[in-house]
Amino acid sequence: MSKNTSNRYVEISNLTKAYPNPFGRDIEVVKDFNMILKKGEIVSVIGHSGCGKSTVLTMVAGLNPISAGELAVEGKQISGPGPDRSVVFQSPCLLPWMTTLENVMLGVKQCYPHGTRKQRRQICEHYLNLVGLADSMHKYPREMSGGMQQRVGIARAIALKPQVLLLDEPFGRLDSLTRMDLQDTILEILDREKITTMVITHDVDEAIYMSDRICMMTNGPEATVGQILEVPFARPRVRADVLDHPRYYDFRFALIAFLEKQEHSKDAHIQAVHEKLQQGSEEPVSA
Amino acid sequence: MSEQTRIEKIKYGLLKTIDVSGFKVFDPVVRLIFGEEPQKQVKDITRFMLMPIVFVCCCLVAWNFIAPRHKTKSGEVPTPAQVWNALTINDTLYDRENEKESDFALSDDQREAKIEEVKTLIETKESESTKLKEELATIEASAKQKKAEALAPLQAEYSELKTTHKEARAKRKIEAESLAEAVTKKKATTEELLTFLRDSSRLKEDEKEKEQIIKDQIAEINNEKPKSLQAAQMASDSAATEVQHLKKRLDYLSSGNRSLKVAKAKDSASSALTELESAKSPAEILAAANTVVKNEERASKIAKQEYPRASTIWFQMWRSLFTVFIGFVLAAVVAIPIGIMCGLNRVAMACLTPIISIFKPVSPVVWLLIFQIVVGAFFPNPETHPFFVFLNSLPIIGRLNANPALIFSACTVAMCALWPALVNTALGVSSVEKDHMNVAKVLRLGLWSRLTKIIIPSSLPLMFAGLRISLGVGWMVLIAAEALSSSEGLGKFVWDEYQNGSSLTFSNILLACFVIGIIGFILDRIMIVLQRAVSFDDGAATV
Fold it and tell me: Which of A40, B189, B297, B398 would bridge with A194, disulfide CB 3.0–4.6 Å?
């Protein structure tokens, strides 16, 4: 693999999502989102809720059609969904009529069409072991807690041997203890498997702990990359060390400052609109 | 300790079974047996088991009270006891058919042993029957006497009343005539005559009314049949029919027996064969040879003959069940693929919507007539058609006498049961969770695995809910279709009873009503169990 493709493993250029508006110009939720991921890098995307983080991820995953812009993985243009970019959704999205093993097997069968039954099973068991579910192979989703279900979701995504792993607020619905547990599990796997990963989150601490870079998104509409923060902590990371690191609070402060500014700018924007309306100006307010 | 957990295991297993089979009412009973919170269970049992039972009993009592008070053209409305009696009668009819069938097929020693058995039975039954007849005669005589005694004073009163009234009328006539005379002599006015005549006509009405009251009383006593007489009559009748049945059995064991008939045909064949050997002229030889062949053919035909069963309620029930099963399977086979197609493809849905909306409300009667014509055209000679020959050669199904009537009844059932299954399947398929579809997209599942792994499993509960409605509709439609088309089945049973007009008619119809209802209930329960077994969001899926 050339150095070029490993440095520019995932290229997202001018990604735009516009929804048609029957009474005017299209509404551009995300506009000109640019980002380049190195191979094996973990990048989080953080922003206020509703700013379009998930839209970016679903577009990268191919579940949401791209309005404009391009997406390339390993130098190859990509369109549509595929197992090369596996997704862990916010809700576990397990098929309730299948056991843990069958849920993982569903994807494995698709990615290893030439493997024997035994090989496939070994692959499933390996990844379920990694996420700590060796004992729950034959349980149905309803028999497991939310955290365990999400572990199955992670095992299913990683068992596909994806080029890019997309995590869409994977811990959003879990309690904080389970969340920390799962963060460690994922980091452990990622450190071993070196999968290029994009994490959507709105949790500042999670973003700092997990990622190499943090992409802060501006508020929508026309949301785009606001700022990028490098987190140069060494891997594998230990939570206590990260928390104790002298620069930890600098990063945290930078993130929160950015997010607060976004909130203020939104207020300021609304203020401006109100003022204009009061002046009776007929000039359309740009969104 | 382990003993305790074992008991606990049994308990929860039982509770789960009850829950899955939809008999949650029995939950507190099981809990009570295992001694869990007895007070609460007893309270639940009284509220949800005893109360319904008491209510149903109240309904039965009300039925028992109201029924005999409504007189109809075909007798009184039968009471629960009469319906129960009809059940036992129909049951014995079924048993007797079974006996005759087995008698018909018996041969050799078994047949002879049976003949002895039946003969002794006939003797005892005949003596019983004559005894009952005598009893009936004495009871009848005493009843007659009692009736006469009761009638005598009434009749005397009636004749007395009649004579006094006659006299009164004659007297009034004379009075009227004299009054008319007085009018001519100007001793009385015409007004007086008119009032007199008006009064006398009113008196005549009154007298007639009085006579009618007594007449009615007499008629009532005449129509009255004491309970003892009724019972004796019934007992004697049933004994007589029993004797008749035994005689019929004897017939099937002797001259009507299959093996004997076959033997007879073979005998005549062999005698014809000896004739053939001794025959001289060509004409004789040809005639003898013809008889040999004919008798051989007859023998082989008779050997294959089955006893021609009369249709009983249980036969009709099995046939109805078979028909509804075929119709239901047809409906499912058509509805599920089309439903899946409609759920997946909006264009397909749009194409089928007009057809569904127009044909869904069409009455089953219309479908029945259409299918009767269409299906009839496929089977010009149903007796020799390979399809029916095949069906009737099957071990159990063969006894149900499949014919075109069964097929078009089943088609009618299918046509009416199709729609709920189709619409529900389409709904189930189109409402697969978006998350699950996203999983399919990410994994790039092909159409087939998308269908079998995601779409069908997730729409199964709704699909089965639709099938459950379909089966209910199908069962209802079938009974009507059978009644209308005289295709053998419970519907025809009801219709035949209505047309027969015997003393049992009304009871039999009510009996059929209960049989149909109970079967419908059982079918529904089966569908509930299936539906729960395929529901993944329910604990039932693992059982």
Answer: A40
